[in-house]
Amino acid sequence: MNRKTIRIIILLATVSLVGIIATQFFWVKNAYNLEEKQFNERVSLALSNVTHKLLSINKDEAEIFNPVKQISSNYFITTINDTVHPYLLETLLKNEFVERNINVNFEYVIYDCFTDSIVFGDFISLDKTEQDQLQSKSYNIKWDRDGHYFGVYFPTKLTYIINRMGIWMFSSSIILIIIIFFAYTINVILKQKRLSEIKNDFINNITHEFKTPISTISLSADVLLQPNLSPERLKNYAKIIKDENNRLKNQVDKVLQLATLEKDKLKLENEELDLHEIIEDSIKSFELLVKQQKGKISSSLNANTFIIYGDRVHISNILYNLIDNAIKYSPENPKIEIATNSTGEHIEISVKDNGLGIPEQSQKNVFEKFYREPTGNRHDIQGYGLGLNYVKAIVEAYKGKIKLISKENEGSTFVIKLPFKK
Questions:
Q1: How far is the CA of 131 from the CAs of 71, 113, 118, 123, 346, in angstroms?
Q2: Could you read off the pLDDT of 300-351 as tens digits, one per residue?
Q3: What is the mean pLDDT of each run of 10 residues along the chain (422 residues)?
Q4: Which of 167, 156, 159 is nearest to 27 (CA)?
Q5: Are 193 and 221 in contact (CB under 8 A)?
Q6: For residue 254, what are the CA distances in angstroms to 241, 244, 379?
Q7: Rounded distance between C-alpha atoms, residue 92 and residue 49, angstroms
Q8: H helix runs in 58-111, sequence order
């Protein structure tokens, strides 16, 4: 599946999901508005009936038109002609709400014009924030000083309405699960596509890297089979075969290192190590190669403590891979600087080069298996994308950390922190 097809599939699926979400939101909103409207109507009707019952109990023949006013979404006030006892009001409210299937907690307040005060009921216990909110709403009302009122507050109205929208909440949950599954599926598709590209790049690289020494060995062998070959030429071609054989061995070893890490068969033969000594040995191994490229490799070993506990082979390989990378990605006159510093319980090793640098968007991928910055069909920079993944795995095996500091065309610095001997 090519990149264009994947993009079309993702676009169509996204448009479909957005359409479903918009439709669901529209219907859920309408359903909520309908439930709220029905709730408000039932409450208003219940409060009107309570008013009429209070008038009947007080034998008041006066008629009150539109006694109920909705002050806010969950707060209603009702006009009455006389004072009312809180427990009587509470009983009437409970009965009316039960009769109209309004099974929700409420709090009521009574405004008494004779005492010019607001009395809070105690049907439910409100927390301080809700009580302050209710009190603020009540005092902000422009009460008629000659009138009597009671108010009803529903602190859990939103939860009550949502609970009554069971089927809509269920369908919304299903859509949410579909969205999560869709996002996961897209992520898997993109990841598999990327892995496929990395695999193809790896196959191309390994084919090239194996093909070159094999061809060289084959040509050298043909020369050796020629009659009357001088001893000097025999020695030269034998050396070529040996060098190319070692090159093949090194390439195979890199692939085997990866296989070892993947199968969790990594065995660390730990011992006391002088890290400065290992660094100096690594520098000596590369000095000739760097000089051939008219470059320079230097060190600044400032760490006061440099004895660590680790596997000599793997720790040496860490430095070898980092220096090798620094040389490969510094095409002209490489300048490589290796430094150490003590930082608390760790020793910090940095390997800095003046090479190509790594673009910011690629830096998060450099430690992944097989990853290499795309170079098209060029093979002048050899490798499989295994070195940095190996370095990271070994560093983390010792509970250490590695980070990259790089800017395109300005070189890269790899910084490793390893714990001292415990």
A1: 16, 21, 13, 13, 56
A2: 888 888 888 888 878 888 888 888 888 888 777 888 899 998 887 888 899 9
A3: 75 85 88 90 90 82 78 85 79 87 84 66 54 57 64 85 83 86 84 75 69 79 81 82 77 66 64 88 81 85 85 83 83 86 86 84 75 50 66 85 85 88 60
A4: 167
A5: no
A6: 20, 15, 18
A7: 9
A8: 86-99
Q: Which helix (H) or strand (E) holds 235?
A: helix 231-262
Instruction: Give the CA angle between residues 309, 315, 316 to the nearest 5°.
Output: 135
- E-strand stretches of 203-352: 270-274, 296-301, 307-311, 335-343, 346-352
Contact (CB, 8 A) for 337 and 352? yes
Instruction: Encode 274-300: b = buried (16+ Cβ within 10 Å), e = exposed.
Output: ebbebbeebbeebeeebeeeebebeee
Mean of per-residue pLDDT scores for the chain: 79
Q: Do strands 412-419 and 401-406 pair parallel, antiparallel, or not at all (unpaired)?
A: antiparallel
Would you say 338 and 349 are in contact if contact means Cβ atoms under 8 Å apart? yes
Please name the residue ranges forming H helices in 61-165. 86-99, 128-140, 157-164
**Cβ–Cβ < 8 Å for 332, 290:** no
Cβ atoms 419, 399 nearer than 8 A: yes
pLDDT tens per residue, range 182-231 = 888 888 888 887 777 767 766 776 676 677 678 878 888 888 888 877 88
Hey, what amino acid is at 70?
Answer: Q
Q: Is the pTM of this model over 0.90?
A: no
Residue pair 153/113 in contact (Cβ under 8 Å)? The answer is no
Cβ burial of 315 (10 Å; 0-12, 13-18, 19+) is buried
- The CA distance from 354 to 329, in Å, is 8
